[in-house]
């Protein structure tokens, strides 16, 4: 199947333009599943695993929008002033854009904190946006407060001074206490317990960033318990190609089964 990829820009929730890339089969058909793919905390749409999964899904007949949240990658805005609330709102704008640009969004996939946003959206009781038919998480946390605790531990100035810098992945990021306070304000487990659509959970027992316990907790909270696929040996960023291929092939089959 031929693939077509092109860059897009659309308004973000905080008033800044968000950068995205559409990877889709060419030609696209009315029954083609449409997926919005959200990246991890401080990551972007150009992370190797995100790129390869998105392109691989397009090669298998899935249309994908991968995008940068506010303040990251090619998107505008100040990352230090974002939050889980803004992440969730950026996801809403991405879903709206994809529905108009490609077709009605039938699936969500999120890596790490992007997976948390995807689950929160899927669990919301809102009629404003059509719910997807399938959900996939990759190394996603079962709550948002643990990240706030981790960031505070990395630099106590975040709590004492209201702002501080932390090193994540070799890059320095400015974190404000408004961000960590927002992380603590969300009850993600309660939202997960309201998810009713088929859910596929990828998690590595060797992930040192988000432990396997999070996948078990997510599965226990879901009404349909979901399906956990273990990725032994995989790291948090899914760096190895065999792991990427397994995630891509399984996700494609899952989406075609439940959202095609």
UniProtKB/TrEMBL annotation:
The Serine aminopeptidase S33 domain, residue ranges: 49-140
Gene Ontology terms, MF aspect: carboxylic ester hydrolase activity
Gene3D superfamilies cross-referenced by the UniProt entry: alpha/beta hydrolase
Keywords attached to this entry: Hydrolase
The protein's name in its UniProt record: Alpha/beta hydrolase family protein
Lineage, opening ranks: Bacteria, Pseudomonadati, Planctomycetota, Planctomycetia, Pirellulales
